[in-house]
Design goal:
The protein is of the alpha/beta class and 574 residues long. The protein is 25% helix and 22% strand. It contains 13 helices and 26 strands. Strand 2, helix 2 and strand 3 form a beta-alpha-beta unit. The longest helix has 16 residues. The protein starts with 25 loop residues before the first helix and ends with a helix. Bound molecules: adenosine-5'-triphosphate and magnesium ion. Adenosine-5'-triphosphate binds next to helix 2, strand 9 and helix 9.
Length: 574
């Protein structure tokens, strides 16, 4: 492949020089120490090793930030390596999406590899272990192997085939490879210790027979290496110095080291860190696949999904995700991160970068009785108060406007300061208006609010110093463009979506109100030419992003996040 990083469909918003990893981090300390002692010479090599059996999620983003971020910090390199040892579940679609997601996060891999690139080498090494009396062909079925394994408190039982001669093992392994035996009839196992307190060391399976088409090697192989046999050796082939992975692999480390030692190959080092868990969120490819297959969501990139493609479509920025991962940091014990913290970093970034516009989600007509018919004024509006260089734009103002239904109450409750009969409010960038009457339909619902305006208050202040208690947003009825808006809530109703009654699964915790479509939204005309992926703050409503479902005639927006930042409050409380 020529430059694997060159083509990109969704550009990253992160600049190459932006750093990623949090200030204090035990992984960094280990790497720094190894560099100082010269354990691996002067270079750091890491890898990100996804299995191409689904789309990446935000948990993977954490691993990516560590693998790439730490290597970058020490001027090292990172490979992207697909761990494709399971031909039945792997697809090229997943490979492509994974590459796109890594690029979008702003990272560049040095080498692009597949564990399947190493199948020949792995086979040779297996033969070497057989010759050394360290591996044998077992005729037990998978079930029998499991029954022989023992438990955490009881040792395992040796297979009756454990002490086959080297020659017999070599011949049988060769015949396994040649396709002479049916699926599951034999395995190649490492000969370690059936009484080991670590179950992973009880003669683990290295190869299984599987007559399945592989997405890269086709039908060349009908035996496939197991994860534990492929992973460490692949690291070693690539001279990976620091092989970072999540804590569930801690018990596999002795095996990782055993293979490397017995084969006498480059001593890659496995180091574990905690998995990212987020409240109200599932981070398991298997379960996410189930949501897609059973059509609980529209696809892997449904904006409610915690996949990288989902949150990208929702409008999250790659910078926000990297900042979040840095803030989450690493630990040696698993915990759970509050979803509000993720949203906090999204808002923090969008607040700095999103142009502001006015949009009305649930329109109510407002007519200014004393405003000249046919007159249009161009009101000057600030594009981004956080960024002076973003400048200003003109927003048309006319006699008939739309305001939010929520911004008017015929009978206002006590704390309600927005528009109501006899009450005066400020129209953002416009004038003071005072409600003088309402028009109702047959059902008694208010369908039009009539106001008068004070021409002296243009721009939002009255020369007599008169105060109003509320400022509301609006769009000019004749100039507004129509759009659909999709509002999202959490996909699950429980902080731990896996917490279910007996006999149910996580889908019983799906939130039936996680998607609300608002079909007839009115937006100021400046967004007319917005393109898929463009982000805005709709004043007072939240951050929104143009969805790829948009057509020439109709824009569709996703709400990325509302404006309310609960995490900032949680932090303040300490
Ligand atoms: P899942 O459990 O979602 O299926 P996985 O671990 O099987 O994920 P892989 O494709 O094997 O997915 O993962 C590639 C890398 O990403 C591994 O190094 C793994 O440790 C890491 N990783 C996966 N999930 C998380 C997570 N929630 N937090 C941090 N790292 C993760
Ligand atoms: Mg895995």
């Amino acid at each position: 492949m020529n430059n694997p990083n060159s083509s990109t469909t969704a550009a990253s918003d992160v600049k190459p020089e932006e750093s990623v990893v949090s200030a204090s981090n035990f992984l960094r300390d280990i790497i720094a120490e190894d560099l100082k002692s010269g354990k691996y010479g002067q270079s750091v090599q890491t890898r990100f090793p996804p299995e191409p059996n689904g789309y990446l999620h935000i948990g993977h983003a954490k691993a990516i930030c560590l693998d790439f971020g730490l290597a970058d910090e020490f001027s090292g390199h990172t490979n992207l390596r697909f761990d494709d040892t399971n031909p039945e579940k792997e697809e090229t679609e997943y490979v492509d999406s994974i590459m796109e997601d890594v690029r979008w996060l702003g990272f560049h891999w040095e080498g692009l590899y597949y564990a399947s690139d190493y199948f020949d080498q792995l086979y040779e090494w297996a033969v070497k272990l057989i010759k050394a009396g360290k591996a044998y062909v077992d005729d037990l079925s998978a079930d029998e192997v499991r029954r022989h394994r023992g438990t955490l408190t009881e040792p395992g039982k040796e297979s009756p085939y454990r002490n086959r001669s080297v020659d017999e093992n070599l011949a049988l392994f060769e015949r396994m490879r040649a396709g002479e035996f049916p699926d599951g009839s034999r395995t190649l196992r490492a000969k370690i210790d059936m009484a080991s307190p670590n179950v992973n060391m009880r003669d683990p399976v290295m190869y299984r027979i599987l007559h399945a088409e592989h997405h890269r090697t086709g039908d060349k192989w009908c035996i496939y290496p197991m994860y534990d046999y492929a992973h460490g050796q692949s690291d070693s082939i690539e001279r990976v110095t620091h092989s970072m992975c999540t804590l569930e692999f801690t018990d596999h480390r002795p095996l990782y080291e055993w293979f490397i030692r017995e084969l006498g190959i480059f001593p890659s080092q496995q180091i574990e860190f905690d998995r990212l868990n987020i409240t109200y969120t599932l981070l398991s490819k298997r379960k996410l696949l189930q949501l897609v297959q059973d059509k609980h969501v529209s696809g892997w990139d449904d904006p409610r999904m915690p996949t990288i493609s989902g949150i990208r479509r929702r409008g999250y920025t790659s910078r926000a995700i990297r900042n979040f991962c840095a803030a989450v940091g690493v630990s040696r014990t698993n915990g759970t991160t509050d979803f509000a913290m993720l949203e906090h970093f999204v808002r923090e970034d969008l607040n700095k970068t999103s142009p502001r516009v006015m949009a009305v989600l649930r329109p109510l007509k407002l007519v200014i009785d004393n405003y000249p018919e046919g007159q249009v004024e161009e009101m000057e509006a600030v594009n981004n108060p956080e960024d002076e260089s973003a400048g200003t734009r003109k927003v048309p103002f006319s006699r008939e406007l739309y305001i939010e239904q929520d911004d008017f109450r015929e009978d206002p409750p006590k704390q309600y300061h927005r528009l109501s009969p006899g009450r005066e409010v400020r129209l953002r960038y416009g004038y003071f208006v005072k409600c003088v009457s309402v028009k109702k339909n047959d059902k008694g619902e208010v369908v039009e609010v009539h106001c008068t305006y004070d021409p002296a208050s243009r721009g939002g202040n009255s020369p007599d110093g008169r105060k109003v208690k509320a400022t509301i947003h609006w769009v000019s009825a004749q100039h507004a463009i129509d759009a659909e808006v999709r509002l999202y809530d959490k996909l699950f109703t429980k902080p731990n979506p896996g917490e279910v009654e007996e006999g149910q699964d996580f889908t019983s915790n799906l939130n039936p109100e996680s998607l609300e479509v608002v079909p007839a939204v009115k937006i100021e005309p400046s967004v007319r030419d917005a393109k898929s992926g463009d982000r805005y703050q709709f004043e007072r409503l939240g951050y929104f992003c143009v969805d790829p479902d948009s057509t020439a005639g109709k824009l569709v927006f996703n709400r990325t996040a509302s404006l309310k930042d609960t995490w900032a409050k949680i932090e303040k409380r300490g």
